Amino acid sequence: MKKKIFIQIMCVAVVMLSGTSCKKYLDVAPDNTGTLEYAFRNRNEAENYLFTCYATLQQFADLTGNAAFVTSGEIVYPNNLSKHPIDETGFNLLRGTQNSSNPGLNWWDGENKGQSIFRALRRCNIMLENIDNPVDLTATEKKRWIAEVKFLKAYYHFYLARMYGPIPLIKTNLNITDDIQTLKVKREPMDDVFNYIVSLLDEAAPDLPAVIGNQAQELGRITRSIALSVKAEVLTTAASPLFNGNADFVGLKNKDGQALFAPYNAQKWQLAADACKAAITECEARGLKLYTFIPPANITKLPDSLRTILSLQNAVTEKWELNSELIWALNPTFPFQGYATPRLTSKSAINIFSNPSTFAVPLALQETFYTDKGVAINEDKTFDYANRYGIKTGDDASRFYIAKDYATVREHFNREPRFYANLGFDGGIWFGNGKIDINDMYHVEARGNKSLAGPKDLNTLNITGYWPKKLANYLSVYDDGFQEQSFHMPLMRLAGLYLLYAEALNEVSGPTADVNTYVNRVRARAGLKSVQEAWGTYSNNPTKYTTQDGMRQIIHQERRIELCFEAQSGWDLRRWKELQNVLSVPIQGWNIYEDQAVNYYRPNTVFTSVFGLRNYLWPIKDNDLIINSNLVQNPYW
Question: Are residues 262 and 311 in the same domain?
Fold first, then answer.
């Protein structure tokens, strides 16, 4: 009888919230259990249920379902591959496939590459409702588990809020005895959503462990540093233009007239800055610092230029337990290294079906990276921007970046280390892939279908001529098959937290000394001069960094460069309301079927992206609005 009542409650709750049928939501307890009493009968069973609360979180590791990864314009993907297929739903949103009748990446209902986050929230509430049942659960464990679940509730709400804006707050599970209007939940004002998320994080943080002691068993579970860092990100998001005084959304109201977006509030930036500083203090107290590569014994005579590149690459691809700046990552290993790696050997070119190599980086993203002077390529007085598409041959001075005597485009020369750490390109050096001798390194050859990395068929081509090198560990080998050195994709790194703090401080008081300090920490690890020296010496706008707006532009570009391909820039560009500008230009690459440099290096439009004002927030599925008449649609859908 209890199980029957429980199922009825869940069905009504789900139908009223999302309009989906009941059947697929019934499996809310661990496998092979029939009742909640069994699920919480002792400590071991309750711990199994705790891990089901984490389950949806781990699904975020599949970045092809992450809105920030697939719709940021950092990576594009060819259409309709018959071999090496991945679900293209997310990537195709840039081609204008999004609609409200059947939304792509539907994390509201759990469809089209999305998981049901409301289902995850329901699990969390069940856990909190039953945490007192296991009599053999110690008081210390109980406090920690409650804190973990509160964190998960906060993060799940945050994920929905970034996609949909105002959302229903699932503080407790709905009760079957409630009247029908109570069951028809409505969207809560944006400020209330963020305040609730922060309150959960504040409740969770004190009872979370400072560090994970048993990394073999518990790495990936939530710590205090993670909670405080997420709080910093939440409050910075709440202060940002998409959610703070957004005139485009001022008319969004519930059906009872309740406004869902409030006027601009400058104090939100101070709250964000304070939260960022608290998170940095906690992380540094636990020994976190910016990662630098320490060569293993079998790598000798490594030049400083390659050491810097490997520091930047391995800040993402180093093993978690060895990565000094990794705040948080997900347990599943990153499964797409083969999509980010070009064919570099004759065996890999023969075995083209063993690895796709199909993650392509647009030309515009490549041009976002600085010159070696540390300023934008269109601002650097020493960089020949007008003739950047001319041809130049690799020489001795550039041999650790570009193959000697290889003809490539001029704009591949004299770029910052993060350019070479992030991108694989025609003529570019690829240190690793089984070769760690600086006198015998691979380089990419991508011009025409006769080259190793060039297009062989419609299933194994890179449609722009650039690969996201940063997403491949230098020890992974693509030769006769693919031998992978696994890693966990970061959700938060210390470098990102430093830049988040600098951003918030600049919005509070302009470019103060602290703003410069935290930006320059990240730049120094990347081998760049300080903002003041770089702009003052090399920029055609030498005072840019002295104004709040100028420093804002610098910080935004720093975050896009430093966190490139990490599913961060997509969220940033949304909250800044800059994604529409980024995607307003056609997605371009090189003329990949041409084998001569002079013909290959001509910008070629791959497709024209479709992104309008309405795309900043996801549509709620039309059917949900029919079933729950208290829900209102997002603007312009």
Answer: no
